[in-house]
Amino acid sequence: MYTKEFEIRWSDIDANRHLANTAYVNFMSHTRMAFLMENGFGQEDLAKENIGPVVFYEHIYYFKEVFAGKPIKVTLQLKGLAEDGMYFEFLHNFYDENGQNFASCEMMGAWIDLKERKLTKLPKALHDNLDSLSHTDDFKILTREDTRKFGKKPQHLNPEKIGF
């Protein structure tokens, strides 16, 4: 399991004096990008392939407050991956200095061709590198349907009704 340790900084605290929501998102992003950069997904590698990651959603579950002054650990596991690598799902868990799990997040995303601006599969070498990440017990092969499992669709504003 991939793990990063963080120190909670003053800027990571919100008005309630506990870890702010934005800090959770930043710690997860840092953890994911550290794993990816260590496994062939650095800026130069992605530029050579003309691809980049996009986030579909991050569902964070908070179990307990955490405060400044103690280190925390953020883990990363692969919860799902499409056969061609286009879609991926990660699981992050947050642990305090005693190993107590205080938050968890399921995150799904995909790879986009930066020129065509369309989703694209991963080259085999990068797919294999990503698949080397430890898998969750409920790991699954992802399909396009998995990206639509919550049934969310855009709800556009009607310009006539809102005065545009």
From TrEMBL:
InterPro entries found in the cross-reference section: 4-hydroxybenzoyl-CoA_TE, HotDog_dom_sf
Hydrolase keyword on record: yes
GO molecular function: fatty acyl-CoA hydrolase activity
Family: Belongs to the 4-hydroxybenzoyl-CoA thioesterase family.
Keywords from the named record: Hydrolase
Name of the protein described by the UniProt record: Thioesterase
